[in-house]
Design brief:
The chain is of the alpha+beta class. The chain has nine helices and 15 strands.
């Protein structure tokens, strides 16, 4: 049985950030080459982090010398996830990894570390995960007044926008603005029961690629209605990174009541893994949970609380 192990110890997650210490258990003698793999760690619900340690152990000048090389693999858990970026820190060194696939290669750490540091837990890792985005050219028109030609009306006010930008971001907007609808003729869309703050959040996303810390429930409902799949996924990401024992019940009821199918599997996945929602599995009854990361074979896991 291989006694060589590398793993993360004292793992702490808060929001979309995490920290831990790398710990190595190592036994080797004589000229040897060892490859030690850590388990796959689910970080912030939607990504996987794995550590690989290559150790060349050899005899030189009357003593054994170890030459360890640390590499990291960071990937999204599901092919349907948005592309992710990890800003990673290993002790005082930084590393940025962009994940566009469910499986990716290992990237070498920017510095080398001794076996003694690894075995004593002196190598600390910390990271912040976010959605990978590119600059939005529409940002130049965010404060524009001259080319405004459309308004989104809520229950307590309206927000001015540009119809060609709206049409480019939502198939629902495009259908309204190019068909024989009154919205196209009147230049205004009445979003009944939607507050102006939510409409402003929608504009902030469309023009600036930003989403709010609060108000995600109303924003994801509006995005779902407008068939804005990318915005729905971004909202899901922020909901998951803020998931706690205290708010899980709210988000679970909210997703079911509003038929937010993109959110429900991820919430139940958190229960199945018993991370942030540890202790509430007794309230889940008769759910069929699509296993995150296994969409290809449509494997389903029955979660029955008995």
């Amino acid at each position: 049985m291989d006694k060589n192990k590398i793993y993360l110890k004292n793992y702490i997650q808060k929001g979309n950030s995490f920290s831990a210490h790398m710990m190595l258990e190592f036994e080797c003698s004589g000229n040897d080459h060892k490859v030690v793999m850590s388990p796959e760690y689910v970080v912030c619900s939607i990504a996987v982090l794995q550590v690989k340690l290559d150790i060349l152990y050899y005899y030189s000048y009357a003593q054994y010398v170890a030459s360890p090389i640390i590499t990291f693999r960071f990937s999204k858990r599901s092919k349907d996830c948005l592309n992710l970026v990890l800003n990673f820190k290993i002790n005082n060194s930084t590393l940025t990894i962009v994940s566009t696939e469910c499986s990716g290669g290992f990237i070498q750490a920017p510095e080398s570390y001794s076996l003694s540091d690894l075995m004593s837990g002196n190598v600390k890792v910390a990271g912040v995960i976010d959605i990978f985005t590119v600059p939005n050219p529409s940002s130049a028109l965010y404060d524009d007044k001259d080319l405004i030609d459309f308004s989104l009306k809520g229950i307590d006010g309206s927000v001015d926008v540009h119809r060609h930008i709206m049409a480019a971001t939502s198939p629902v907007f495009k259908a309204m603005l190019t068909g024989p609808w009154r919205e196209a003729k009147q230049g205004i869309l009445d979003l009944k029961d939607i507050k102006i703050s939510t409409i402003q959040h929608l504009k902030d996303y469309i023009y600036l690629n930003t989403v709010p810390e609060a108000g995600l429930d109303e924003l994801i409902k509006l995005a779902h209605f407008l068939s804005m799949t990318t915005l729905v996924k971004i909202c899901v990401f922020h909901i998951l990174t803020g998931l706690t024992l205290e708010n899980f019940l709210y988000w679970n009821h909210f997703a079911e009541a509003n038929n937010i199918s993109e959110l429900i599997p991820w919430l139940l996945d958190s229960v199945r893994r018993s991370d942030v929602t540890l202790g509430i599995t007794d309230i889940i009854t008769s759910y069929e949970v699509l296993t995150i990361g296994n969409e290809g074979n449509e494997e389903k896991i029955r979660q029955d609380a008995e």
